Amino acid sequence: MPHEPPREETEVKRVKRRTVVMGLTAAAAAPSVGFATGARAATSKGTASGTDASLVFDPSAYTELTIGITDTEGTAHSVTYHFHKVASYVANPVDVTYQGLNVSVPVSVDGTAVDATAAPILFANSVGGYMPSSVANATGIGGAGGPGGPGGPGGPGGGDSGPNRTQLSLLAGYVVVEPGARGRTLVDSSGVYYGVAPAAIVDLKAAVRYLRFNRGLIPGNVERIVSSGTSAGGALSALLGASGDSPLYEPYLKALGAADRSDAIFASGDWCPITDLEHADMSYEWCWADNPLADGTSVDQTIAADLKAEFTGYLAALHLTAPGFGRLTVRNLDDYLVRTHLEPSATRYLAALSDADRTTYLTANPFITWSGDRATFTWADFLTHVGARKKSAPSFDAFDLSTPECNEFGNGTTIARHFTRYGQEHDTSGSTATRLDSDIPEKLHSMNPMYHLVDKVNPHRSRHWWIRLGTKDSDTSLTIASNLAARLRDLGDDVDLKYYWDAGHGADNDPADFVTWIAQVSGHRL
């Protein structure tokens, strides 16, 4: 049964409504959409007290849109929703182009009224590559401008064609919030990089605080906020889930005039998260050191060996455990990945094929043994099957400072900096520094969910986690997601981790299952 909306909400006069019918591909037909009048961010001088009038959401400022969404079964639906634009979710924005958000509220599906008053809120960021992401020019749901564009890497659909999780969430009756966020390439007229770490996560936290501040004005249950993101956006989604209400970010949030509310979220959905950056190089070489580059050449094996050796100590320090394996170490990690994640992934894939297609696939991939409706293989054969690795060595903290992650840790007018001891010691950029800058450790803490799960275990973290990546995703190590999941399980959290067989970076092969999972963990009736 639909929930009865509060009386004060039912009596709001919708004086600013416009009604437009549009299709998924009919962007040109979409109207210009005005900002909510309560978000006067460009001129606000408010503080983080949470009482600034510029942070008050105006529920009457929306455009009514109708969109066609085809579900994963191929059935077409018509969804009418209210599309709200918030110019800025902070009182003192650095750049309103990136510090705004959009809210999409379903009101009917196939002509049947939908009451989203108490629905879960999907908080869908579109960050990719730690680049800036803007919703300022979006004229409907899914219009965020990330580096891959709508639906691209970091976009609302994680890069797959067909229905995506953002659209399917709206179809399910959830409220969809799409926040913008600053990114590493933003530079002002004086040459200062103002979107480097920790700007993106601070912005997302400020957006969550805005939602909580407007409890009862913004439809949806602010106690059931579920984040989602892909690639760097997946990393930020995981970080948002792990770091809720951490005091580490408070000075940044106060400077922005963020609402004085909690930034903790209920659940976190993370696709191929590019995270744990200070340990990403060593993790990458443990996983992919023996795989060739796309041109057939091998990376410098001295570098690979150095980094693999560092991974041994790092993994031991995590004290991760797994059922049937006990303590996870470099001696059993490959077997753990194969038995716990990779073979089940291959089994699901093969079981879903027709008998003829399965026979064809197994003939082409004889390293897999198919017996008793179960796939088995070795780690070495799996690596051969994956083939070329995507990145050189080091993959993240490049000696010449050329990688996006070095830019992410830039500072002031410095475009890029080293963030690992190994990268600094082997610098080829001409830097005269002999050690990492003193602020790097805190910046790393602010960008790594593992810090909030291992070093400083956060009691305000999310307790429900959805983690996905492809088995052929060599944008980072396959251990990044498995380590994150293992730690969360050790802490007693609810974790749903799956690898998509033969899929690459950005895959989202089960978006409908994610939407169902949200209902299950949140207690919401679909």
Notable traits:
Tannase_B; alpha/beta; disordered N terminus; eleven-stranded mixed beta sheet; 526 residues; TAT_signal; Acetyl esterase/lipase; BD-FAE-like_dom
Number of helices: 16
- State the end-to-end distance: 10 Å
- Oligomer type: single chain
What is the strand content? 5-15%
Tell me what you see in this structure.
This protein is α/β, with parallel strands linked by helices and 526 residues long. Helices cover 30% and strands 15% of the residues. The protein is built from 16 helices and 15 strands. Strands 1, 2, 3, 4, 5, 6, 7, 8, 9, 14 and 15 form an 11-stranded mixed sheet that branches. A two-stranded antiparallel sheet has the order 10-11. Strand 12 and strand 13 (374-376) form a beta hairpin. The longest helix has 19 residues, at 333-351. The radius of gyration is 23 Å and the shape is globular. It holds the Pfam family BD-FAE. Residues 196-282 form the BD-FAE-like domain. Residues 141-163 are annotated as: Disordered. Residues 141-161 have a biased composition (Gly residues).
Task: Quickly describe the structure.
This is Acetyl esterase/lipase. This protein is α/β, with parallel strands linked by helices.
Topology:
Elements: H1 7-10, E1 19-21, E2 63-70, E3 76-86, E4 101-109, E5 112-113, E6 121-124, H2 165-171, E7 175-179, H3 199-213, E8 225-230, H4 232-242, H5 250-256, E9 267-271, H6 280-288, H7 301-318, E10 321-322, E11 326-327, H8 333-351, H9 355-364, E12 369-371, E13 374-376, H10 379-386, H11 404-408, H12 421-425, H13 440-447, H14 449-455, E14 464-470, H15 478-490, E15 494-500, H16 511-522
Parallel strand pairs: 1-2, 6-7, 6-8, 8-9, 9-14, 14-15
Antiparallel strand pairs: 2-3, 3-4, 4-5, 4-7, 10-11, 12-13
Helix pairs in contact: 4-14, 6-7
